[in-house]
């Protein structure tokens, strides 16, 4: 069943109805070719989900009757905030799509020393609109209960300050040889933290093409962020973000269960 998101203001529980507006109207009618009586899965972006039937169709909106509310929580208690050094736009699109599928809660774009992309004010608005749409479509496809937040662009130093609000942070670095990501995640400190807290906030800082500079990596470590190795091979930036996220979610019990 196809899933769509609506704002809470478009849900009328008293009348057992909700309304879909915007770009999704065209997709439902022109692409999926749904009609009166067809069923759709709708989420309010706050983990409340509804099975609905199309009741009325207008060119600007679709009115649905709520058949039943379902309780299928697909969101993780492991809140990952992925800090991504700005890559080229094609790679950015892959990162946004796949991280949304993995379950990341927030994606923060960061301008680092080796970032090759410079988002000027005129272009950034359109790019962010496109990127937010990619996150939205990936949220529908993967049946997320919440749409990940996309934020930035932060300076490197501002990103470090932002990371201080997390419970702990890791930063994969290709030249790291003293500490592995598995060693950190399996440590008693992290296991205890994950067991004790209802929700745990984890930051993952990924460098752009070319990775972090040595100076940046030293600053990262000076802030108490774990600089970690992910193994003997070097990942591209878009691969590193997906692999690091998957490892964290697996080790802390989100991926691989039922």
TrEMBL record:
Residue stretches making up the Ribosomal RNA small subunit methyltransferase E PUA-like domain: 22-66
Annotated EC: 2.1.1.193
Keyword Cytoplasm: yes
Protein localization: Cytoplasm
Keywords: Cytoplasm, Methyltransferase, rRNA processing, S-adenosyl-L-methionine, Transferase
Pfam families: Methyltrans_RNA, PUA_4
Major subcellular site: cytoplasm
InterPro entries: Alpha/beta_knot_MTases, PUA-like_sf, RsmE, RsmE_MTase_dom, RsmE_PUA-like, tRNA_m1G_MTases_N
Reaction(s) the record says it catalyses: uridine(1498) in 16S rRNA + S-adenosyl-L-methionine = N(3)-methyluridine(1498) in 16S rRNA + S-adenosyl-L-homocysteine + H(+)
Membrane-crossing segments per the record: none
Annotated Ribosomal RNA small subunit methyltransferase E methyltransferase domain residues: 75-248
Function: Specifically methylates the N3 position of the uracil ring of uridine 1498 (m3U1498) in 16S rRNA. Acts on the fully assembled 30S ribosomal subunit.
Family under the similarity heading: Belongs to the RNA methyltransferase RsmE family.
PANTHER family: 16S RRNA (URACIL(1498)-N(3))-METHYLTRANSFERASE, RIBOSOMAL RNA SMALL SUBUNIT METHYLTRANSFERASE E
Protein known as: Ribosomal RNA small subunit methyltransferase E
Species of provenance: Peptostreptococcus canis
